[in-house]
């Protein structure tokens, strides 16, 4: 399935949207991991590496966040969040496949981390990511072709 997605650099005007999105997509995972799910915590995470934040646009609507950092060897997916009303429709998978194709074309490795309580880890595994490390709350995953 193909999606007509667009991306635009996040601006200061997007911060409230992104905090609300993060609360909707991540609070349950933080709570089930016994981590604080306060607005302050979500705000800090939204602002982390904000220069790399892109708003995902679908059907002319802001529907998510993609935050990626790249270096010579690695594409690090810092955050990928899709509005819950659109989850399960293949948008995240489509975006991840694009990242994997970029990695294949550039010879890079794709890495990410996911909370152990987040079911998105199953999507990552289905695309070929493997767990390379873990801590108390998260799995660290890698895709290498």
Structural write-up:
This protein has 145 residues and is α+β, with helices and mostly antiparallel strands. It has a single domain, classed as Aminopeptidase (3-Layer(aba) Sandwich), CATH 3.40.630. It contains four helices and seven strands. The chain has helices at residues 15-32, 39-47, 91-106, 120-126, and strands spanning 5-9, 53-58, 61-70, 74-82, 109-115, 130-134, 138-143. Helix 3 (91-106) links the parallel strand 4 (74-82) and strand 5 (109-115). Helix 1 (15-32) packs across helix 2 (39-47). The longest helix has 18 residues, at 15-32. The protein is globular. 26% of the residues are buried. The mean pLDDT is 95.
Q: How many alpha or pi helices?
A: 4
Strand content: 25-35%
CATH topology: Aminopeptidase
The helix/strand class is alpha+beta
**What's the shape?**
globular
- CATH architecture tag: 3-Layer(aba) Sandwich
CATH class descriptor: Alpha Beta
Could you state the order of secondary-structure elements as H and E?
Answer: EHHEEEHEHEE
For CATH, the homologous superfamily is named as Gcn5-related N-acetyltransferase (GNAT)
The separation of the N and C termini measures 22 Å
Give the overall average pLDDT.
95
The number of domains: 1
Kindly provide the radius of gyration, computed on alpha-carbon positions and rounded to a whole number of angstroms: 15 Å
- Helicity range: 25-40%
Give the strand order, joined by hyphens, for the main sheet.
1-2-3-4-5-7-6
């Amino acid at each position: 399935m193909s999606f007509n997605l667009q991306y635009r650099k996040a601006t200061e005007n997007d911060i409230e949207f992104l905090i609300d999105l993060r609360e909707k997509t991540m609070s349950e995972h933080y709570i089930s991991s016994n981590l604080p799910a306060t607005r302050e915590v979500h705000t800090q995470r939204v602002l982390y590496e904000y220069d790399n934040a892109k708003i995902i646009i679908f059907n002319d609507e802001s529907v998510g966040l993609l935050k990626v950092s790249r270096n010579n060897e690695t594409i690090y997916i810092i955050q990928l969040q899709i509005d819950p009303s659109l989850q399960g429709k293949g948008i995240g998978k489509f975006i991840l496949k694009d990242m994997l194709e970029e990695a294949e074309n550039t010879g890079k490795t794709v890495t990410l981390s996911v909370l152990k309580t987040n079911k998105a880890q199953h999507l990552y595994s289905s695309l070929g990511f493997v767990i390379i490390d873990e801590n108390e709350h998260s799995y660290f995953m890698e895709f290498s072709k």
